[in-house]
């Protein structure tokens, strides 16, 4: 056990002490708690948004929309808890005639991991913060949560945390199931503590890797679910530009400029055929869009963005499409307008070490490729993993019957190997909060490419499977009992089926 300050020790001790009690709460009670948290957040949104605007520089419209999304997430997980599908219940009835010898009665479900430490994000002060998606999934799973507040919005974090604690306290739930702490040192100390059973994080590759390494280096390693860096490549065919270039350019700029480009799903790179006139369309679209200055989240982010932007602009062959700007005010806060540049594929290859790194802010790079470039081969040449990959097609190409259909099919197949979400004729910003969503991807997009931080599958990160063999009914979790009092989905394997395995498929 690590050495903790008395205050942090009390937090971890409370979380540990409440774990078994909270895990034993009924799905109905956990769902009610999530619903009440959503209601409280809705009611407090006006005053919380005022605090968030002051601390983050994000707009009222963006923050109100994000707060609504956060409440929707909480309600979605409430539905998921009641449904019970996340339990993954499988029941194999005892079978004395089993083909490999008598089979015992086996029943498998998932149980909560225990206390989880959630590092909140800077760029989503509601949706990936104190009551954001990770917290919702952790609470839905039946785990106590310790939220490490982000230093970029401490006042908002405390206000949101107090709101949540008040709701849970009034329900009679233990105080230890939801707590907020501050400070990097405190976060690292808690992550090392043996009573904490998992970690979640949204932020930079550098910090995420450090925390993942700490989690793995513990005497008993724990799962760590980090969402890190992503440049989200976009491929636009020449026919798509010819068919709807203005529409594509306007959508591209809106996606790059939204929230000053401080989104993990921003399209950082667009690959397009030379001569497709996308650059012309983007310049034209910029004249009709609101390109007003936007404050970046904090001084550190602004300083890093300014350095990255200058390095990109100074690279060989880089030509500004939209010059953009960076201005620091008297308080050291950075104010920006979008920058879009173009570069040939050869010069992109030459300057790869500088150009390929994520620029966290409103900057994107158009890479112009020679006609006939093998797109499927190009993708692994430059990128490891990303949250999203996008393909813009013409109406004819979307039928899958054009001359380049095989090339496009190969590109889609390669994208599916390297991203968590493949989009068509859209933009990766705006991640729908819905059961089928996948917000994750291979390294360095995330530390665990089989998980998601958005959508109902996110709950599985904070559960582990347990099987019960020949257990008396009185000792079974409710989800595994024959009478199924929770009415959860149960995948049944009755006795007598094993001798016919495979025959119905025509393989035997």
UniProtKB/TrEMBL annotation:
Domain Aldehyde dehydrogenase residues, every copy: 7-369
Alphabetical list of InterPro entries matching this protein: Ald_DH/histidinol_DH, Ald_DH_N, Aldehyde_DH_dom, Aldehyde_DH_Superfamily, ALDH_KGSADH
Molecular-function GO term, any one: oxidoreductase activity, acting on the aldehyde or oxo group of donors, NAD or NADP as acceptor
Pfam families assigned to the protein according to its UniProt record, in alphabetical order: Aldedh
This protein's UniProt keywords: Oxidoreductase
PANTHER family: ALDEHYDE DEHYDROGENASE-RELATED, SUCCINATE-SEMIALDEHYDE DEHYDROGENASE, MITOCHONDRIAL
Protein's name in the database: Aldehyde dehydrogenase (NADP(+))
Organism: Cryobacterium frigoriphilum
